[in-house]
Write a structure and sequence with these properties.
By secondary structure, the chain is of the alpha/beta class. The protein is built from 12 helices and 11 strands. It has a 7-stranded mixed β-sheet, sandwiched between helices. It has a 4-stranded parallel β-sheet with strand order 2-1-3-4, sandwiched between helices. Helix 4 packs antiparallel against helix 5 and helix 5 packs antiparallel against helix 6.
């Protein structure tokens, strides 16, 4: 996939936010082994309803695509079916929006039955309103038989009906999986010696790596956005206090997470709702780590778990300092607002012992405090 990326600075977006968002879009392209050949910026008060960026810019896009031999144009926004059709008609190049790109990554990375169903559900929900906008063509099927009246049922209507039927079937299957997971959590909730911990964070913050180090397990890790989608669970045992910690890794987030994906993955996010403690893992070496932290906090608030005890885990500090001696002791274990914070390096093992002590502290308090 050879891509041209398109970003628009509207009145509600700063230059910094636009640059950050386009850089993330480039990372999403790389996650699909694609190449970003260039970026096109534009300033507009509001998007053009017909082509998002205006016909003049679309013609410029056409020239750029021809000159670079790009086969795909990706917009850092959500496009309407009409906009996609119009842009494709002018440029002659495949057009995707941000949601299309993320769904493509999710489709490629899903491994378990639940993840595959969730991705298919999100894709179908995203596709449904676009049926009549495809290529601007109204397709219809002439009905056969003596009693047929009119043109019969349109192909678009047939496709809509089939998609709705498939959506209903997927939701039913996911509901069954949800009940199974509920039974598993119900068993866990009965154990007063069990602390339930959920790992959350922006994609590629190092959650899977941290799960591996804390629980001494092996899970797939990769330095890519959305490297893993499937929920993973493992245990830590503290025999001296007769306590056990179950840690669950969850799907990574991105800023402005598409609604279709959020809706489809709500069953997975229920692990966060059931948690006694949230570990919010942040890649502190990322220059935009504070914006990413805030983006995740907004999602936690949206799913109404922002009231739960949480520890902000500032990870990958080894990319900023050469050794743990350079860490300012006053910053190793502090309070940020009402959130306890610890700076660590999962790769080097720095401060993991202190993080284990924090988990042990919460585990020892489990039968004294109700977290939910």
């Amino acid at each position: 996939m050879r891509c041209i990326l398109v970003g628009v600075k509207t009145s509600n977006k700063t230059e910094k936010e636009l640059k950050y968002s386009l850089n993330e879009l480039e990372g999403l392209v790389e996650a699909l082994d694609g190449i970003a050949l260039g970026k096109l910026y534009q300033k507009r008060e509001t998007p053009d309803p017909a082509t998002y960026i205006g016909k003049g810019k679309v013609r410029q896009l056409k020239e750029i695509a021809e000159g670079t031999q790009a086969d795909t144009i990706i917009f850092d926004a959500s496009l309407t079916p009409v906009q996609i059709t119009n842009i494709e008609n002018i440029t002659g190049v495949n057009v995707l929006d941000r949601t299309d790109l993320i769904l493509s990554i999710f489709s490629e990375r899903a491994k378990t039955k639940q993840a595959k169903l969730q991705v298919e559900l999100a894709t179908l929900q995203h596709e449904l309103p676009r049926i009549y906008g495809q290529k601007g063509k109204a397709m219809s099927r002439i009905g056969g038989g003596m009693k047929t009246k009119g043109a019969g049922e349109k192909l678009g209507e047939i496709k809509v009906r089939r998609i709705k039927e498939r959506i209903a079937k997927i939701k039913k299957e996911l509901e069954y999986i949800k009940k199974q997971r509920y039974q598993q959590r119900k068993w866990r909730n009965k154990d007063i010696n069990l602390l339930k911990v959920a790992l959350v964070g922006y994609t590629n913050a190092g959650k899977s790596s941290l799960l591996n180090r804390l629980t001494k397990r092996e899970a797939f890790i990769s330095n890519q956005l959305f490297a893993t989608l499937d929920t993973k669970t493992s245990y830590i045992v503290f025999p001296d206090i007769n306590k056990k910690v179950v840690i669950t890794d969850t799907v990574g987030f991105v800023k402005d997470m598409p609604k279709e994906i959020m809706d489809a993955f709500m069953a997975t996010l229920e692990e966060v709702e059931e948690a006694d403690l949230i570990l919010h893992v942040v890649d502190v070496s990322d220059e935009n780590w504070q914006e990413k932290l805030e983006a995740v906090e907004k999602i936690l608030k949206k799913i109404k778990v922002d009231h739960k005890p949480a520890v902000v885990v500032l990870n990958k500090v080894d990319k900023l300092v050469p050794s743990p001696e350079f860490l300012d002791e006053s910053q190793e274990h502090i309070l940020t607002g009402n959130k306890e914070t610890i700076t660590i390096s999962t790769e080097k093992g720095w401060n993991l012992d202190k993080l284990m002590e924090i988990l042990k502290k919460y585990a020892s308090e489990k039968n004294l405090v109700s977290y939910n």
